[in-house]
Amino acid sequence: MKLPLEKHPCFNDNSRHQFGRIHLPVAPKCNIQCNFCNRKFDCLNENRPGVTSKVLSPEQAVHYLGNALEISPNIAVVGIAGPGDPFANPDETMKTLRLVREKYPEMLLCVATNGLNVLPYIDELAELQVSHVTITINAVSPKVGAEVYAWVRHQKRVLRDEQAAETLLENQLAALKKLKEKGITAKVNTIIIPGINDHHVLEVAKTVSELGADILNTLPYYQNEGTVFENIPEPHPELVKHIQEEAAKFLPQMKHCARCRADAVGVIGEENSRQMMVKLEEAAKMSVNLDENRKYVAVASMEGVLINQHLGEADRFLIYDMKADGSSCKLIGSRPAPPPGGGNKRWDAVGEVLFDCKALLVSSAGDTPKNALGAKGMQVLVMEGVIDEAVTGFFKGKDLRHLMRTTKMRGTGCSGGAGVGCG
Ligand SMILES: C[S@@+](CC[C@H](N)C(=O)[O-])C[C@H]1O[C@@H](n2cnc3c(N)ncnc32)[C@H](O)[C@@H]1O
Ligand code: SF4
Ligand code: SF4
Protein backbone atom coordinates (compact mmCIF):
# COMPACT_ATOMS: atom_id res chain seq x y z
CA MET A 1 0.00 0.00 0.00
CA LYS A 2 1.30 3.47 -0.88
CA LEU A 3 1.36 5.66 2.20
CA PRO A 4 0.39 9.35 2.01
CA LEU A 5 3.90 10.59 2.86
CA GLU A 6 3.06 14.17 1.94
CA LYS A 7 0.74 14.41 4.97
CA HIS A 8 3.57 14.26 7.55
CA PRO A 9 3.31 17.65 9.29
CA CYS A 10 6.90 17.65 10.51
CA PHE A 11 8.43 16.89 7.14
CA ASN A 12 6.08 18.87 4.93
CA ASP A 13 5.58 22.56 5.54
CA ASN A 14 2.33 22.56 3.56
CA SER A 15 0.78 19.91 5.81
CA ARG A 16 1.60 21.25 9.20
CA HIS A 17 -1.55 23.34 9.69
CA GLN A 18 -3.79 20.69 8.18
CA PHE A 19 -2.60 17.42 9.70
CA GLY A 20 -1.65 16.46 13.22
CA ARG A 21 0.72 13.97 14.83
CA ILE A 22 0.43 11.92 18.00
CA HIS A 23 3.29 10.72 20.14
CA LEU A 24 2.64 7.48 22.00
CA PRO A 25 4.71 7.62 25.23
CA VAL A 26 5.68 3.94 25.48
CA ALA A 27 9.48 4.29 25.89
CA PRO A 28 10.43 5.48 29.39
CA LYS A 29 14.05 4.29 29.68
CA CYS A 30 17.11 5.79 28.02
CA ASN A 31 20.44 4.20 27.14
CA ILE A 32 22.45 7.43 27.17
CA GLN A 33 22.49 10.61 29.20
CA CYS A 34 22.62 13.87 27.29
CA ASN A 35 23.86 16.72 29.47
CA PHE A 36 20.88 18.88 28.44
CA CYS A 37 18.04 16.42 28.94
CA ASN A 38 15.87 16.18 32.03
CA ARG A 39 12.95 13.78 31.92
CA LYS A 40 12.12 14.09 35.62
CA PHE A 41 9.55 16.85 35.62
CA ASP A 42 6.04 15.89 34.77
CA CYS A 43 3.92 18.95 34.25
CA LEU A 44 1.02 19.23 31.84
CA ASN A 45 1.91 22.84 31.08
CA GLU A 46 5.55 22.25 30.32
CA ASN A 47 6.26 22.14 26.61
CA ARG A 48 9.67 20.67 26.19
CA PRO A 49 11.19 17.44 24.88
CA GLY A 50 11.33 14.39 27.11
CA VAL A 51 8.26 15.29 29.16
CA THR A 52 5.14 13.18 29.34
CA SER A 53 2.29 13.13 31.80
CA LYS A 54 1.88 9.34 31.51
CA VAL A 55 3.73 6.29 30.21
CA LEU A 56 1.57 3.70 28.40
CA SER A 57 1.93 0.02 27.59
CA PRO A 58 1.65 -0.82 23.87
CA GLU A 59 -1.93 -2.03 24.33
CA GLN A 60 -2.90 1.06 26.31
CA ALA A 61 -1.27 3.19 23.63
CA VAL A 62 -3.35 1.64 20.85
CA HIS A 63 -6.50 2.07 22.91
CA TYR A 64 -5.59 5.73 23.49
CA LEU A 65 -4.86 6.17 19.78
CA GLY A 66 -8.39 4.99 18.94
CA ASN A 67 -9.87 7.64 21.25
CA ALA A 68 -7.48 10.31 20.00
CA LEU A 69 -8.47 9.67 16.38
CA GLU A 70 -12.11 10.15 17.30
CA ILE A 71 -11.30 13.55 18.80
CA SER A 72 -8.81 14.56 16.06
CA PRO A 73 -9.43 12.62 12.83
CA ASN A 74 -6.76 14.74 11.09
CA ILE A 75 -3.95 12.89 12.90
CA ALA A 76 -1.82 11.57 10.06
CA VAL A 77 1.27 10.37 11.93
CA VAL A 78 1.91 8.17 14.93
CA GLY A 79 5.35 8.86 16.39
CA ILE A 80 7.31 7.34 19.24
CA ALA A 81 9.72 9.83 20.81
CA GLY A 82 10.29 8.78 24.35
CA PRO A 83 10.05 10.08 27.01
CA GLY A 84 13.35 8.11 26.92
CA ASP A 85 14.60 6.40 23.80
CA PRO A 86 12.44 4.10 21.64
CA PHE A 87 15.29 1.60 21.22
CA ALA A 88 16.24 1.55 24.88
CA ASN A 89 12.72 0.03 25.09
CA PRO A 90 12.72 -1.95 21.84
CA ASP A 91 10.09 -4.52 22.85
CA GLU A 92 7.52 -1.88 23.75
CA THR A 93 8.39 0.24 20.72
CA MET A 94 8.25 -2.56 18.15
CA LYS A 95 5.10 -4.03 19.65
CA THR A 96 3.37 -0.64 19.53
CA LEU A 97 4.40 -0.13 15.92
CA ARG A 98 3.16 -3.62 15.00
CA LEU A 99 -0.18 -3.11 16.72
CA VAL A 100 -0.71 0.30 15.13
CA ARG A 101 0.24 -0.95 11.67
CA GLU A 102 -2.15 -3.91 12.03
CA LYS A 103 -5.08 -1.73 13.04
CA TYR A 104 -4.35 1.36 10.88
CA PRO A 105 -2.75 0.21 7.62
CA GLU A 106 -2.63 3.74 6.18
CA MET A 107 -1.17 5.51 9.19
CA LEU A 108 2.27 7.10 8.80
CA LEU A 109 4.69 5.79 11.41
CA CYS A 110 7.63 7.79 12.75
CA VAL A 111 10.28 7.26 15.44
CA ALA A 112 12.84 9.60 17.00
CA THR A 113 15.94 8.06 18.53
CA ASN A 114 19.44 8.84 19.69
CA GLY A 115 20.54 6.13 17.24
CA LEU A 116 22.54 3.97 19.64
CA ASN A 117 20.43 0.84 19.27
CA VAL A 118 18.19 1.33 16.26
CA LEU A 119 20.37 -0.58 13.76
CA PRO A 120 19.17 -4.12 14.69
CA TYR A 121 15.55 -3.01 14.17
CA ILE A 122 15.80 -1.25 10.81
CA ASP A 123 14.84 -4.32 8.74
CA GLU A 124 11.64 -4.72 10.73
CA LEU A 125 10.97 -0.97 10.68
CA ALA A 126 11.11 -1.16 6.89
CA GLU A 127 8.80 -4.20 6.85
CA LEU A 128 6.32 -2.30 9.02
CA GLN A 129 6.56 0.63 6.60
CA VAL A 130 7.86 3.02 9.22
CA SER A 131 8.47 5.82 6.76
CA HIS A 132 10.20 8.47 8.87
CA VAL A 133 13.05 8.08 11.37
CA THR A 134 14.81 10.90 13.21
CA ILE A 135 18.27 10.42 14.71
CA THR A 136 19.63 13.08 17.05
CA ILE A 137 23.29 13.63 16.20
CA ASN A 138 24.86 16.46 18.16
CA ALA A 139 28.49 15.82 17.27
CA VAL A 140 30.50 13.98 14.65
CA SER A 141 33.73 14.20 16.64
CA PRO A 142 34.22 12.15 19.83
CA LYS A 143 35.95 15.16 21.37
CA VAL A 144 32.86 17.36 20.99
CA GLY A 145 30.55 14.43 21.78
CA ALA A 146 32.36 13.85 25.07
CA GLU A 147 31.14 17.30 26.17
CA VAL A 148 27.52 16.53 25.24
CA TYR A 149 27.04 13.06 26.75
CA ALA A 150 27.57 12.05 30.39
CA TRP A 151 27.46 8.32 29.60
CA VAL A 152 26.37 5.75 27.05
CA ARG A 153 25.24 2.25 27.98
CA HIS A 154 26.05 -0.15 25.16
CA GLN A 155 25.91 -3.94 25.30
CA LYS A 156 25.65 -3.90 29.11
CA ARG A 157 28.72 -1.64 29.53
CA VAL A 158 28.59 1.94 30.70
CA LEU A 159 31.00 4.08 28.69
CA ARG A 160 32.11 7.64 29.38
CA ASP A 161 34.08 10.47 27.75
CA GLU A 162 35.35 10.04 24.20
CA GLN A 163 34.80 6.27 24.21
CA ALA A 164 31.10 6.86 24.88
CA ALA A 165 30.79 9.51 22.18
CA GLU A 166 32.70 7.39 19.66
CA THR A 167 30.50 4.31 20.23
CA LEU A 168 27.36 6.41 19.92
CA LEU A 169 28.61 8.07 16.74
CA GLU A 170 29.59 4.77 15.08
CA ASN A 171 26.11 3.38 15.69
CA GLN A 172 24.37 6.58 14.58
CA LEU A 173 26.23 6.75 11.27
CA ALA A 174 25.76 3.02 10.56
CA ALA A 175 22.03 3.41 11.27
CA LEU A 176 21.73 6.45 9.02
CA LYS A 177 23.40 4.57 6.17
CA LYS A 178 21.11 1.57 6.58
CA LEU A 179 17.97 3.70 6.83
CA LYS A 180 18.79 5.15 3.45
CA GLU A 181 19.55 1.71 1.99
CA LYS A 182 16.04 0.73 3.09
CA GLY A 183 14.49 3.84 1.53
CA ILE A 184 13.32 5.31 4.85
CA THR A 185 13.16 9.11 5.11
CA ALA A 186 15.85 10.12 7.59
CA LYS A 187 15.84 13.36 9.55
CA VAL A 188 18.74 14.38 11.74
CA ASN A 189 18.15 16.55 14.80
CA THR A 190 21.12 18.57 16.03
CA ILE A 191 20.70 20.53 19.21
CA ILE A 192 22.59 23.85 19.13
CA ILE A 193 24.31 24.20 22.51
CA PRO A 194 26.25 27.45 22.99
CA GLY A 195 29.92 26.93 23.73
CA ILE A 196 29.60 23.16 23.36
CA ASN A 197 28.78 22.31 19.75
CA ASP A 198 27.60 25.55 18.11
CA HIS A 199 30.92 25.82 16.23
CA HIS A 200 30.55 22.20 15.07
CA VAL A 201 27.00 22.02 13.69
CA LEU A 202 28.10 22.60 10.07
CA GLU A 203 30.48 19.65 10.39
CA VAL A 204 27.49 17.54 11.47
CA ALA A 205 25.45 18.86 8.51
CA LYS A 206 28.23 17.99 6.04
CA THR A 207 28.77 14.47 7.42
CA VAL A 208 25.11 13.48 7.54
CA SER A 209 24.39 14.92 4.10
CA GLU A 210 27.18 12.73 2.69
CA LEU A 211 25.44 9.70 4.22
CA GLY A 212 22.14 10.62 2.56
CA ALA A 213 20.14 12.29 5.37
CA ASP A 214 17.06 13.91 3.87
CA ILE A 215 16.55 16.86 6.17
CA LEU A 216 18.30 18.53 9.10
CA ASN A 217 16.60 20.02 12.12
CA THR A 218 19.06 22.29 13.91
CA LEU A 219 17.12 23.26 16.99
CA PRO A 220 18.03 25.51 19.89
CA TYR A 221 18.87 23.84 23.13
CA TYR A 222 16.23 24.37 25.87
CA GLN A 223 17.69 25.34 29.23
CA ASN A 224 16.73 22.73 31.80
CA GLU A 225 17.10 22.84 35.56
CA GLY A 226 18.80 19.85 37.14
CA THR A 227 21.06 19.10 34.16
CA VAL A 228 24.83 19.44 33.74
CA PHE A 229 24.13 22.31 31.31
CA GLU A 230 21.63 24.09 33.54
CA ASN A 231 23.75 27.26 33.60
CA ILE A 232 24.27 27.46 29.84
CA PRO A 233 21.89 30.03 28.32
CA GLU A 234 19.82 29.19 25.26
CA PRO A 235 21.35 30.23 21.92
CA HIS A 236 20.48 33.67 20.54
CA PRO A 237 17.84 33.45 17.75
CA GLU A 238 20.32 35.22 15.41
CA LEU A 239 22.86 32.46 15.98
CA VAL A 240 20.22 29.79 15.27
CA LYS A 241 19.18 31.59 12.08
CA HIS A 242 22.77 31.94 10.92
CA ILE A 243 23.53 28.25 11.57
CA GLN A 244 20.38 27.19 9.73
CA GLU A 245 21.27 29.33 6.71
CA GLU A 246 24.77 27.93 6.54
CA ALA A 247 23.59 24.33 7.11
CA ALA A 248 21.08 24.77 4.26
CA LYS A 249 24.08 24.70 1.91
CA PHE A 250 24.41 21.01 2.75
CA LEU A 251 20.80 19.81 3.04
CA PRO A 252 17.21 21.04 3.49
CA GLN A 253 16.35 22.49 6.88
CA MET A 254 13.34 21.91 9.12
CA LYS A 255 12.61 25.22 10.78
CA HIS A 256 9.25 24.71 12.46
CA CYS A 257 10.29 22.24 15.16
CA ALA A 258 8.29 22.91 18.31
CA ARG A 259 10.55 20.84 20.61
CA CYS A 260 7.56 18.59 21.27
CA ARG A 261 6.72 16.69 24.44
CA ALA A 262 6.86 12.88 24.38
CA ASP A 263 3.05 12.86 24.56
CA ALA A 264 2.47 15.70 22.07
CA VAL A 265 -0.77 15.37 20.13
CA GLY A 266 -2.54 17.50 17.54
CA VAL A 267 -1.30 20.13 15.15
CA ILE A 268 2.35 21.15 15.69
CA GLY A 269 2.66 24.25 17.85
CA GLU A 270 -0.73 23.86 19.55
CA GLU A 271 -0.88 22.73 23.16
CA ASN A 272 -2.33 19.33 24.01
CA SER A 273 -6.06 19.69 24.57
CA ARG A 274 -7.53 18.94 28.00
CA GLN A 275 -9.94 16.45 26.39
CA MET A 276 -7.03 14.52 24.88
CA MET A 277 -5.09 14.46 28.15
CA VAL A 278 -8.13 13.00 29.93
CA LYS A 279 -8.09 10.16 27.38
CA LEU A 280 -4.37 9.66 28.00
CA GLU A 281 -4.97 9.44 31.74
CA GLU A 282 -7.83 6.99 31.25
CA ALA A 283 -5.70 4.75 29.05
CA ALA A 284 -2.88 4.77 31.62
CA LYS A 285 -5.30 3.51 34.29
CA MET A 286 -6.54 0.58 32.25
CA SER A 287 -5.30 -2.98 32.67
CA VAL A 288 -1.87 -3.21 31.04
CA ASN A 289 -2.94 -6.06 28.78
CA LEU A 290 -5.98 -4.85 26.93
CA ASP A 291 -6.01 -7.49 24.22
CA GLU A 292 -9.72 -8.25 24.08
CA ASN A 293 -9.11 -11.71 22.65
CA ARG A 294 -7.20 -12.68 25.78
CA LYS A 295 -9.90 -13.25 28.38
CA TYR A 296 -8.63 -16.02 30.65
CA VAL A 297 -5.91 -16.70 33.20
CA ALA A 298 -3.85 -19.91 33.06
CA VAL A 299 -2.26 -21.54 36.09
CA ALA A 300 0.46 -24.18 36.56
CA SER A 301 -0.57 -26.30 39.54
CA MET A 302 0.05 -29.87 40.64
CA GLU A 303 -3.26 -30.46 42.41
CA GLY A 304 -5.47 -27.52 41.41
CA VAL A 305 -5.46 -25.66 44.73
CA LEU A 306 -2.07 -23.94 44.87
CA ILE A 307 0.16 -22.26 42.30
CA ASN A 308 3.07 -24.61 42.83
CA GLN A 309 4.45 -25.76 39.51
CA HIS A 310 7.39 -24.53 37.44
CA LEU A 311 6.57 -23.45 33.91
CA GLY A 312 9.20 -25.89 32.60
CA GLU A 313 7.54 -28.81 34.38
CA ALA A 314 3.88 -28.14 33.77
CA ASP A 315 2.15 -30.98 31.93
CA ARG A 316 -1.19 -29.13 31.78
CA PHE A 317 -2.53 -25.67 32.41
CA LEU A 318 -5.71 -24.89 34.33
CA ILE A 319 -7.80 -22.18 32.69
CA TYR A 320 -9.85 -19.72 34.73
CA ASP A 321 -12.49 -17.11 33.96
CA MET A 322 -14.53 -14.93 36.34
CA LYS A 323 -17.98 -16.02 37.48
CA ALA A 324 -20.77 -14.08 35.78
CA ASP A 325 -21.61 -12.30 39.07
CA GLY A 326 -17.96 -11.15 39.36
CA SER A 327 -17.62 -12.59 42.89
CA SER A 328 -14.69 -14.94 42.25
CA CYS A 329 -12.93 -16.97 39.58
CA LYS A 330 -14.12 -20.29 38.18
CA LEU A 331 -12.23 -23.15 36.54
CA ILE A 332 -13.38 -23.58 32.95
CA GLY A 333 -11.00 -26.26 31.74
CA SER A 334 -7.59 -27.82 31.55
CA ARG A 335 -5.27 -27.88 28.51
CA PRO A 336 -2.29 -30.19 27.98
CA ALA A 337 1.07 -28.40 28.01
CA PRO A 338 3.49 -29.02 25.12
CA PRO A 339 6.15 -31.61 26.07
CA PRO A 340 9.27 -30.28 27.87
CA GLY A 341 12.45 -29.50 25.92
CA GLY A 342 12.66 -28.05 22.43
CA GLY A 343 14.09 -24.65 23.51
CA ASN A 344 12.25 -21.63 22.15
CA LYS A 345 9.88 -23.81 20.13
CA ARG A 346 8.27 -24.90 23.39
CA TRP A 347 7.46 -21.29 24.29
CA ASP A 348 5.89 -20.77 20.87
CA ALA A 349 3.82 -23.91 21.48
CA VAL A 350 2.81 -22.72 24.98
CA GLY A 351 1.80 -19.40 23.40
CA GLU A 352 -0.44 -21.26 20.96
CA VAL A 353 -2.07 -23.43 23.64
CA LEU A 354 -2.78 -20.33 25.75
CA PHE A 355 -3.66 -18.01 22.84
CA ASP A 356 -6.70 -16.59 24.70
CA CYS A 357 -5.06 -16.12 28.14
CA LYS A 358 -3.83 -12.74 29.36
CA ALA A 359 -1.70 -14.14 32.16
CA LEU A 360 -0.01 -17.34 33.21
CA LEU A 361 0.63 -17.84 36.94
CA VAL A 362 3.51 -20.19 37.77
CA SER A 363 5.76 -20.81 40.77
CA SER A 364 8.90 -20.32 38.70
CA ALA A 365 9.93 -19.29 35.17
CA GLY A 366 13.10 -18.07 33.48
CA ASP A 367 13.52 -14.80 31.63
CA THR A 368 13.46 -16.44 28.18
CA PRO A 369 9.89 -17.78 28.37
CA LYS A 370 8.74 -14.66 30.22
CA ASN A 371 10.03 -12.47 27.39
CA ALA A 372 8.87 -14.81 24.62
CA LEU A 373 5.34 -15.10 26.00
CA GLY A 374 5.25 -11.44 27.03
CA ALA A 375 6.01 -10.47 23.43
CA LYS A 376 2.89 -12.39 22.41
CA GLY A 377 0.77 -10.39 24.86
CA MET A 378 0.63 -12.81 27.81
CA GLN A 379 2.17 -11.86 31.14
CA VAL A 380 4.00 -14.64 32.99
CA LEU A 381 3.67 -13.95 36.74
CA VAL A 382 5.85 -15.85 39.17
CA MET A 383 3.98 -16.27 42.44
CA GLU A 384 2.92 -18.75 45.09
CA GLY A 385 -0.35 -19.09 46.94
CA VAL A 386 -3.94 -20.22 46.70
CA ILE A 387 -5.21 -20.15 43.11
CA ASP A 388 -8.58 -18.70 44.03
CA GLU A 389 -7.07 -15.67 45.77
CA ALA A 390 -4.44 -15.02 43.09
CA VAL A 391 -6.66 -15.45 40.02
CA THR A 392 -9.63 -13.54 41.46
CA GLY A 393 -7.25 -10.81 42.61
CA PHE A 394 -5.66 -10.65 39.16
CA PHE A 395 -9.02 -10.29 37.43
CA LYS A 396 -10.04 -7.58 39.88
CA GLY A 397 -6.75 -5.67 39.46
CA LYS A 398 -5.76 -6.14 43.13
CA ASP A 399 -2.24 -5.66 44.42
CA LEU A 400 -0.70 -9.16 44.37
CA ARG A 401 2.80 -8.23 45.41
CA HIS A 402 2.51 -10.27 48.61
CA LEU A 403 2.16 -13.40 46.46
CA MET A 404 4.91 -12.56 44.00
CA ARG A 405 8.21 -14.33 44.21
CA THR A 406 11.11 -11.94 44.21
CA THR A 407 13.72 -14.49 43.18
CA LYS A 408 13.43 -16.34 39.92
CA MET A 409 14.29 -19.77 41.36
CA ARG A 410 13.97 -21.26 44.77
CA GLY A 411 17.44 -21.62 46.32
CA THR A 412 20.07 -22.35 43.72
CA GLY A 413 19.11 -23.97 40.46
CA CYS A 414 15.78 -25.73 40.09
CA SER A 415 15.53 -27.15 43.57
CA GLY A 416 11.78 -27.32 43.83
CA GLY A 417 11.12 -29.35 40.71
CA ALA A 418 11.36 -32.82 39.36
CA GLY A 419 14.51 -32.13 37.39
CA VAL A 420 13.02 -31.56 33.97
CA GLY A 421 14.47 -28.07 33.56
CA CYS A 422 13.28 -24.58 34.42
CA GLY A 423 10.84 -22.52 32.38
C1 LIG B 1 13.30 13.71 24.25
S1 LIG B 1 14.08 13.13 22.83
C2 LIG B 1 13.37 11.53 22.63
C3 LIG B 1 13.96 10.77 21.49
C4 LIG B 1 15.38 10.31 21.65
N1 LIG B 1 15.71 9.89 22.97
C5 LIG B 1 16.35 11.34 21.15
O1 LIG B 1 17.07 11.90 21.98
O2 LIG B 1 16.39 11.57 19.96
C6 LIG B 1 13.40 14.04 21.47
C7 LIG B 1 14.27 15.19 21.01
O3 LIG B 1 14.32 16.16 22.02
C8 LIG B 1 15.63 16.68 22.08
N2 LIG B 1 15.87 17.29 23.37
C9 LIG B 1 15.87 16.72 24.60
N3 LIG B 1 16.15 17.64 25.55
C10 LIG B 1 16.32 18.81 24.90
C11 LIG B 1 16.65 20.12 25.32
N4 LIG B 1 16.86 20.41 26.59
N5 LIG B 1 16.74 21.08 24.38
C12 LIG B 1 16.53 20.80 23.08
N6 LIG B 1 16.24 19.58 22.61
C13 LIG B 1 16.15 18.60 23.51
C14 LIG B 1 16.45 15.44 21.86
O4 LIG B 1 17.78 15.74 21.60
C15 LIG B 1 15.71 14.81 20.72
O5 LIG B 1 16.13 15.36 19.51
S1 SF4 C 1 7.63 15.51 16.23
FE1 SF4 C 1 9.39 14.20 15.64
S2 SF4 C 1 8.87 12.12 16.30
FE2 SF4 C 1 7.00 13.37 16.40
S3 SF4 C 1 6.00 12.95 14.48
FE3 SF4 C 1 7.26 14.79 14.18
S4 SF4 C 1 9.24 14.05 13.40
FE4 SF4 C 1 8.14 12.27 14.22
S1 SF4 D 1 18.78 10.34 24.20
FE1 SF4 D 1 16.86 11.50 24.20
S2 SF4 D 1 15.79 10.85 26.05
FE2 SF4 D 1 17.89 10.10 26.22
S3 SF4 D 1 18.94 11.63 27.44
FE3 SF4 D 1 19.23 12.19 25.29
S4 SF4 D 1 17.55 13.55 24.72
FE4 SF4 D 1 17.03 12.57 26.67
UniProtKB/TrEMBL annotation:
<dbReference type="GO" id="GO:0032324">
    <property type="term" value="P:molybdopterin cofactor biosynthetic process"/>
</dbReference>
<keyword id="KW-0535">Nitrogen fixation</keyword>
<dbReference type="InterPro" id="IPR006638">
    <property type="entry name" value="Elp3/MiaA/NifB-like_rSAM"/>
</dbReference>
<keyword id="KW-0411">Iron-sulfur</keyword>
<keyword id="KW-0949">S-adenosyl-L-methionine</keyword>
<dbReference type="GO" id="GO:0046872">
    <property type="term" value="F:metal ion binding"/>
</dbReference>
<dbReference type="InterPro" id="IPR000385">
    <property type="entry name" value="MoaA_NifB_PqqE_Fe-S-bd_CS"/>
</dbReference>
<keyword id="KW-0456">Lyase</keyword>
<dbReference type="InterPro" id="IPR003731">
    <property type="entry name" value="Di-Nase_FeMo-co_biosynth"/>
</dbReference>
<protein>
    <recommendedName>
        <fullName>FeMo cofactor biosynthesis protein NifB</fullName>
    </recommendedName>
</protein>
<feature type="domain" description="Radical SAM core">
    <location>
        <begin position="12"/>
        <end position="261"/>
    </location>
</feature>
<comment type="pathway">
    <text>Cofactor biosynthesis; Fe-Mo cofactor biosynthesis.</text>
</comment>
<dbReference type="InterPro" id="IPR058240">
    <property type="entry name" value="rSAM_sf"/>
</dbReference>
<dbReference type="GO" id="GO:0016829">
    <property type="term" value="F:lyase activity"/>
</dbReference>
<dbReference type="InterPro" id="IPR007197">
    <property type="entry name" value="rSAM"/>
</dbReference>
<dbReference type="Pfam" id="PF02579">
    <property type="entry name" value="Nitro_FeMo-Co"/>
</dbReference>
<comment type="function">
    <text>Involved in the biosynthesis of the iron-molybdenum cofactor (FeMo-co or M-cluster) found in the dinitrogenase enzyme of the nitrogenase complex in nitrogen-fixing microorganisms. NifB catalyzes the crucial step of radical SAM-dependent carbide insertion that occurs concomitant with the insertion of a 9th sulfur and the rearrangement/coupling of two [4Fe-4S] clusters into a [8Fe-9S-C] cluster, the precursor to the M-cluster.</text>
</comment>
<dbReference type="InterPro" id="IPR036105">
    <property type="entry name" value="DiNase_FeMo-co_biosyn_sf"/>
</dbReference>
<dbReference type="Pfam" id="PF04055">
    <property type="entry name" value="Radical_SAM"/>
</dbReference>
<dbReference type="InterPro" id="IPR013785">
    <property type="entry name" value="Aldolase_TIM"/>
</dbReference>
<keyword id="KW-0408">Iron</keyword>
<dbReference type="GO" id="GO:0051539">
    <property type="term" value="F:4 iron, 4 sulfur cluster binding"/>
</dbReference>
<keyword id="KW-0479">Metal-binding</keyword>
<comment type="similarity">
    <text>Belongs to the radical SAM superfamily. NifB family.</text>
</comment>
<keyword id="KW-0004">4Fe-4S</keyword>
